[in-house]
């Protein structure tokens, strides 16, 4: 005699398993380190998607001059894996960097940021404008992983 599960039992089993199948929301709030060794701490994200924090780069021509810098940003507020942008005004050089990216949950359930950046240095005049902007090329986007929430 072959036994089959009743539709009610099957429905109950699915209902109990469903919460574990839901996508966890990726949160920018916390401490992050990118693949170049730079560290970032992002505070709570407001209801409007606004956030601030600090950024400590690991990349500079004169490493002993590196100081922690303030970052200001905004993220989408309706997505489980939000897009975001933030600006870092470097405290130890005449430059500003903007980042744009998305917060993802990877296959292991870890939060990961995928970003691109654009750095603008101070130019003395319009003739030097061409060399004042650096970019993160399309072949090498930056990744960051969360250290702690």
UniProtKB/TrEMBL annotation:
Task: Please give the function described in this protein's UniProt entry.
Answer: Forms a strong non-covalent specific complex with biotin.
Q: What is this protein called?
A: Avidin
Task: List the GO molecular function terms.
Answer: biotin binding
Keyword Signal carried by entry: yes
- Self-association or partners: how does it assemble? Homotetramer.
Q: Which cysteines are joined by disulfide bonds?
A: 26-103
Q: What family does this belong to?
A: Belongs to the avidin/streptavidin family.
Q: Which GO terms describe its cellular component?
A: extracellular region
Residues covered by region (Disordered) = 125-149
Keyword terms: Biotin, Disulfide bond, Glycoprotein, Secreted, Signal
Leader sequence range is: 1-22
Segments of skewed composition (Polar residues): 140-149
Q: Which PANTHER family match?
A: AVID PROTEIN-RELATED, AVIDIN-RELATED
First-listed, main subcellular location of the protein, grouped into a coarse class: secreted
Return the Pfam families for the record.
Avidin (PF01382)
InterPro entries under this entry? Answer: Avidin (IPR005469), Avidin-like_sf (IPR036896), Avidin/str (IPR005468), Avidin/Streptavidin-rel (IPR051764)
**Cellular location of this protein?**
Secreted
